[in-house]
Design goal:
This protein is α/β, with parallel strands linked by helices and 359 residues long. It has ten helices and 18 strands. The longest helix has 14 residues.
Length: 359
């Protein structure tokens, strides 16, 4: 039996309890978690914004050590340090054939299959296929990515979602160039990673935007040169900070219609607006046909940072080793399994950066 935070039903409180985790089957590995980040997507899974079969063990941003491998596994071995990949690509679908593994049609397959049981025998599903809110988990072998040397194992959990997403939003989706200006909307875990990625890319002016003024210190430590408390005139203030034209790039990490619209309005003519945040179906964004023509901006969605984790992790690890990317600076709270509900409440209140469950 291992301890895990179980979501019994949509909108039900998480309950930490013992679960029966079977030995890994063919093509699977068992991982002892070192840490798991508490991401807003976990909150979206718990409240039904994102679909997930229940009862389930949530958590998708994790890192740990492989303890057992199933039949046929060759890519990792017992004792290897790994980062969990919640969207592993199959390599054979239409999108993988286009070299777009972040859009893989089968990436979510593991989340729909029971992987463990509660003490009463009830089957449990793995949240986003990884179930990282537990002392140990069993995942498909291709969802366990070898962790490059020189990266602390607990902090490496952030690489599994926040960092790959923020890094990819800057380097793959928006393709920020040295000397450009960037606005980042939302200073949570993904936003902090995006700010650092923009700094590493050589962005000149980096404007952080958040509803909470208490996040200014976190934002500036991550690379923000300006901080704006979100309000009705946010776009106007950002344009004023950029010579009246707006930023070359805006990255929205919130997933709200009004924030997406503001990010678009804060982007210069011909600029790029990238949406990372995951919003509900009720969040509708509107544009006039005339402004789409006149401003010539590009608006794009961004899934998992448009990243290929196998390609990007070694590059990101190099920046961690050099000190350019500070993972620990993104962590505002190190907590236990029992503290996850409080971390959810803090996210809803717009407080802090990334909470990290440390085992």
């Amino acid at each position: 039996m291992v301890r895990a935070a179980v979501l019994s039903a949509v909108n039900a409180p998480l309950k930490v309890t013992g679960i029966d985790l079977p030995a890994p089957g063919p093509g699977q590995v068992r991982v002892r978690l070192a840490a798991a980040g508490v991401c807003h997507s976990d909150l979206s899974l718990s409240n039904g914004t994102l679909k997930q079969p229940v009862p389930a063990v949530l958590g998708h941003e994790g890192a740990g050590t492989v303890t057992v491998v199933g039949e046929g596994v060759t890519g990792v071995a017992a004792g290897d340090r790994v980062v969990l990949n919640w969207a592993p690509s199959c390599g054979t679908c239409h999108f993988c054939g286009l070299a777009e593994p972040w859009l893989c049609a089968d990436a979510g397959a593991a989340a729909a299959k029971p992987y463990a049981r509660r003490a009463d025998g009830t089957e449990l599903y793995p949240g986003l296929g990884t179930a990282a809110f537990a002392e140990e988990t069993v995942v498909p072998a291709h969802a366990a990515l070898p962790l490059p040397d020189g990266v602390p194992l607990a902090d490496a959990a952030l690489l599994g979602c926040a960092v790959l997403t923020g890094w990819g939003a800057v380097h793959h989706s928006a393709q920020v160039r040295a000397g450009e200006s960037v606005a980042v909307f939302g200073v949570g875990g993904v936003g902090l990673a995006t700010l650092q990625a923009a700094r590493i890319a050589g962005a000149d002016a980096i404007v952080a935007v958040d509803v909470s003024p208490e996040k200014e210190e976190l934002a500036r430590a991550a690379g923000a040169t300006e901080f704006v408390v979100a309000g009705e005139d946010t776009a106007k203030r950002i344009r004023k900070l950029t010579g009246g034209v707006g930023t070359d790039v805006a990255v929205e990490c919130v997933g709200r219609a009004d924030t997406i619209r503001t990010a678009w309005s804060a982007t210069r003519r011909g600029g790029r607006t990238t949406v990372v945040g995951i919003g509900g179906q009720d969040q509708q964004v509107t544009f006039s046909a005339l402004e789409i023509f006149y401003f010539g901006r590009t608006l794009s969605g961004c899934v998992y940072g448009n990243s290929d984790p196998a390609r990007d992790l070694p590059v990101i690890a190099g920046h961690v080793r050099s000190g350019a990317l500070d993972l620990s600076a993104m962590v505002s709270d190190r907590i236990g399994l029992d503290d996850i509900p409080a971390a959810f409440d803090a996210m809803l209140a717009g407080k802090g950066g990334r909470a990290l469950v440390v085992f």
